[in-house]
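Support case: user asked for a sample of complex input and structure output to validate their parser. Sending the pair below.
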Amino acid sequence: MTATTVRVLRQLRHDPRTIALMLAVPCVLMTVLRFVYSDRRAVFDSAGAPLLAIFPLFTMFLVTSISLLRERTSGTLERLLTTPLRKLDLLGGYALAFALVAALQAGLVSALALGPLGLHVSGSNAAVVVLCVTVALLGLGLGLLASAFARTEFQVVQFLPATIVPQLLLCGLLVPRERMASVLTAISDVLPMSYAVDATHHLSQEPGAGGWFWADLAIVAACAVGAVALGAATLRRRTP
Amino acid sequence: MRRGRTDVVAGVGFELRAGSVTGLLGPSGCGKTSLMRALVGVQQRVRGELRVLGEPAGAPALRARVGYLTQAPSIYADLTARENMEYFARVQHAARDRIDELLERVGLAAQSDQLIVTLSGGERARASLATVLLGEPELLVLDEPTVGLDPLLRRSLWEFFGELAAGGATLLVSSHVMDEASHCEELLLMRDALLLAQLTPDELTRRAGTTDLDEAFVRLVGGRA
């Protein structure tokens, strides 16, 4: 499993621009948000925390869906499936590599947001990073699934607005979930990002990371595992 | 073996002799790749009996014993040749001490630390081949390993294949370039999804009545023999 982790991290190392973008863009966006709400700090506090959890979803969905699409189309996946490497070793290797990147990204953005930008969160900084890494694994699982339904990179990036953006609209970031039309609330109840954003609300409002935070986190983690498992089923050894 | 309603490869019956190089020859699109994919267990909808090293083709136990070179280079373009070798050595549980020797053997010693994306098509193909040879597989299924290479490199690779066979490995090498038949001990000729014949290069030229391998191929495969 670590063989694949090392390989994926080496691929990233040869692509410093992607690393720079993954780390810098969330920091810039968080800073922009801070100044958009410069005279309404309460809004920054309530929107900033969910945003921390949303960055890793986007980033990991994109890098995973494109990486796995490349594995599928370049023949390396077919080749790997003829070697003793197990599918779970491959996916575990990717998950470990991208979890490390997500932890780095989350550590950096949350240090900036909670420090210089003055975002107020009652929960611990470590809880923020744990949540971000869990959301990153959800992004990885969804990206893996998307890569199975796309033949080209053009198609796979279209799955971002198709699968991630609806979750953002309904997750409670724009309007609290309980105040949406009941149909939309019901839909948001089955979307994993709703629970990630609920978790950030618990973090920003309750001192320490309370039981509800961990319950929401567990739901996101379960969805991430489910998505990776479904995605694993799409890695077929025998193909037409 | 079917794709849609057409038989991609039909009526195939052959055996590979252990420790020999068998050439799989036929025009483009005749089913060579499908046959090779069936041998390594990644081809869907294979019917009939296909046994590889005593096991059903694609059996998990075979994955450490069979090496498969895909037609398009299947290595990571954003890694160096050496980094690709290190990764495939680990996934194939192969010793890393052969990495330098193999890179040398495929003529990539000088380029081993260059990113694959900066290499030429022929160099990429050779880097891909080097990763397949790492695990010292008992059966090597090589899909057009020498296509697009210059004559010197082709000759040196065929010598290498001969040495591997002398060392006990069994090789199945596909090509649509007929000259390469002379390097093989046996040939499988295919056309339109059918296996036409299993014979030696000598038998091929004798049956076709010409010493020119290209001409022999045209006469036999073209159906005018």
